[in-house]
Design a protein that fits this description.
The protein is mainly alpha-helical and 313 residues long. It has one domain: Rhopdopsin 7-helix transmembrane proteins (Up-down Bundle), CATH 1.20.1070.10. The strands form 2 sheets. The chain has a 3-stranded mixed beta sheet. The chain is globular, with a radius of gyration of 21 Å. The chain starts with a strand and ends with a helix. The N terminus is likely disordered.
Length: 313
């Protein structure tokens, strides 16, 4: 991904983040710092809890661990650099680092979406085929699911940074963004970027769109099966097993949907709004995902309590 051409006198890009005043940067850095600390602390606590509690060594919680690892990588890829811009005005990022960040953002967000899809299938089997659940959703399923998630979402987004890296950069090197988003970087080139735009659009909607469609189908089947339950309290119990996962999907897709809508209506909103939403999309779901499961899942809640008691003992 380093085979780029550059006619500028600099070997770096400059990230021109949307907050210009030092006072504004300080205030903006406070919530971002807190969200980063919350995301790191909550996800690491969740990983340790699932590792230490034998009762949590189940496929669904393994998938939750995988989701936590993705969230940690995404946060560390984006937020520390944004904070260094706010704190130290360190706008410079090397060409190679920029394209690596671009690849991680595109591939890991797609991995997260795909993980939600696999978790939706897990809930579908648990509700619609409970007797077959142990034979379908087992450790081998988790291994193959992880291989599929990694392979699909590394191979398909790979051309995005490669196409950007091969462009001929002969204009200014200032990226009007806090992060190395594909189109923010590509538009600095004096080459035709139509292929970059088309691949970004087609790849994004193919990966994320197919995941959302499959998640929607899974929950349609789940809802239909739940409405057929006759036993008293069975509907509430069945829905509660899906509640945490459904809330996580809402966090992920709502911010993504707002980000897309602001891009579509960018003439009516400030250009800084999509930039801010793009940054927040890398940290808010990461901070809230483990908290939602920790609060709503009794086994995880009890495991965290036991872990904290051991820490204070």
């Amino acid at each position: 991904m380093t085979a780029y051409q550059n006619d500028t006198s600099s070997t770096d890009f400059l990230l021109n983040c949307f907050v210009r005043s030092p006072h504004g940067r300080l205030w903006m850095s406070l919530p971002l710092s807190l969200l980063l600390l919350l995301a790191m602390g909550a996800n690491i606590t969740l990983l340790i809890t699932i590792r230490m509690e034998a009762a949590l060594h189940q496929p669904l919680y393994y998938l939750l661990c995988f989701l936590s690892l993705l969230d940690i990588v995404l946060c560390l890829t984006v937020i520390p650099k944004v904070l260094t811009i706010f704190w130290f005005d360190s706008k410079s990022i090397s060409f190679s680092a920029c394209f690596i960040q671009m690849f991680i953002m595109n591939s890991f967000l797609a991995m997260e979406s795909c993980t939600f899809m696999v978790m939706a299938y897990d809930r579908y089997v648990a509700i619609c085929h409970p007797l077959r659940y142990p034979s379908i959703i087992n450790d081998q399923f988790v291994i193959w699911a992880a291989i599929f998630i990694l392979a699909r979402n590394i191979l398909f987004p790979m051309p995005i940074p490669i196409l950007s890296a091969r462009l001929h950069y002969c204009r200014k090197n200032v990226i009007e963004n806090c992060i190395c988003a594909n189109m923010s970087v590509s538009k600095l080139s004096c080459d035709d970027v139509t292929l970059n735009r088309l691949y970004q659009f087609a790849g994004g909607w193919t990966l994320l769109g197919s995941d959302l469609i499959l998640i929607f189908l899974s929950y349609t089947f789940i809802l239909r099966a739940v409405l057929r339950l006759k036993a008293e309290g069975a509907v509430a119990k069945a829905l509660s097993t899906c509640g945490s996962h459904f809330i996580l999907i809402l966090f992920f897709s709502t911010i993504l949907l707002v980000f897309v809508l602001t891009h579509v209506t960018k003439k009516k909103v400030s250009p800084d709004v999509p930039v801010l939403l793009n940054v927040l999309h890398h940290v808010i779901p990461a901070a809230l995902n483990p908290i939602v499961y920790g609060v709503r899942t009794q086994e995880i809640k009890q495991g965290i309590q036991r872990l904290l008691k051991k820490g204070w003992a």
